[in-house]
Automatic annotation (TrEMBL):
The keyword Repeat is annotated on this UniProt entry: yes
Protein name, UniProt field: Leucine-rich repeat domain-containing protein
Pfam families in alphabetical order: LRR_4
Alphabetized UniProt keyword annotations: Leucine-rich repeat, Repeat
Repeat in keyword set: yes
InterPro entries linked: Leu-rich_rpt, Leu-rich_rpt_4, LRR_dom_sf, SDS22/Internalin_LRR
């Protein structure tokens, strides 16, 4: 375990602080339960079966301490002034990472986290997400508010159900063509001009394409599960019949 001990000793103060204020958690929740507290704001942290806590200036020295730390499953570090996530490469059991509202550019270390299911990285400085193509277990991704232009690496993630790529620089939705399990798509505030790709998504329930440059809607009659679509602040013309058909099917349409 000498290598891991050396790694701990070389953590910078910000990372030690993150450990000390319990951003790392090790408890057993199913994917459904994890999603529930994320979506509804339920806080399970008061009812942990086991929770790690390390003082700011403490040093892990025993094999047992290090072994247990490396088994953590959830990492929450939103708005903590992080500029890199390299130390996470040691935590191969992680199933959830939230690094939103930081200044992170490089997420390439994620390639080692094969058990990752939930990845939230809103409002960072990420422009390259090629590494995500290696993470086939991903179900939910949030990359809102980054610098992404070409999200093609997402196209092979066939288990994705929730995808938020709003407020980026994306010009095409072609990258979602194979995401047959997609239920929620948030792609508002990009540079999109075409939404025809959406007609193939029979499982999708929620679509937000507001604040783009879309000029026309293709038929969405095949989207039998659709409950909500926001197409406001686009450049639509000649699409009112399609919109009326959606409304008749009790789809909430924001236009």
């Amino acid at each position: 375990m000498a290598l891991e001990i050396k790694w701990w000793l070389h953590l910078d103060d910000n990372w030690k602080k993150i450990l000390s204020i319990n951003h790392f958690y090790n408890f057993k929740l199913s994917a459904k339960e994890q999603k529930k507290w994320l979506v509804w704001g339920v806080n399970p942290f008061d009812n942990f079966r086991y929770k790690f806590h390390f003082e700011f200036d403490s040093i892990l020295t025993t094999d047992e301490e290090i072994t247990q730390l490396l088994k953590i499953k959830l990492f929450y570090a939103s708005n903590t002034d992080l500029i890199d996530i390299k130390p996470l490469e040691y935590f191969s059991q992680l199933s959830l990472i939230d690094i939103s509202f930081n200044s992170i550019e490089d997420i390439s270390i994620l390639r080692k986290l094969k058990k990752l299911i939930f990845f939230y990285a809103e409002s960072n400085s990420i422009n390259n997400i090629d590494v995500l193509s290696k993470l086939s277990s991903l179900i939910e991704i949030t990359l809102r508010g980054n610098e992404i232009s070409f999200p093609d690496s997402i196209s092979c993630l066939k288990n994705i159900q929730y995808l938020d790529v709003a407020q980026n620089k994306i010009r095409s939705l072609d990258f979602i063509s194979k995401l047959s399990k997609l239920k929620e798509l948030r792609a508002d505030a990009n540079l999109l001009t075409d939404a025809s790709m959406l007609e193939n998504f029979k499982e999708i329930e929620y679509i937000n394409l507001a604040n783009n440059y879309i000029t026309k809607l293709s038929s969405l009659s095949s989207l039998t599960q659709l409950k909500f679509i926001d197409i406001s602040n686009n450049k639509l013309s000649g699409s009112q019949q399609i919109i009326d058909e959606l409304i008749k099917k009790h789809v909430e349409v924001i236009q």
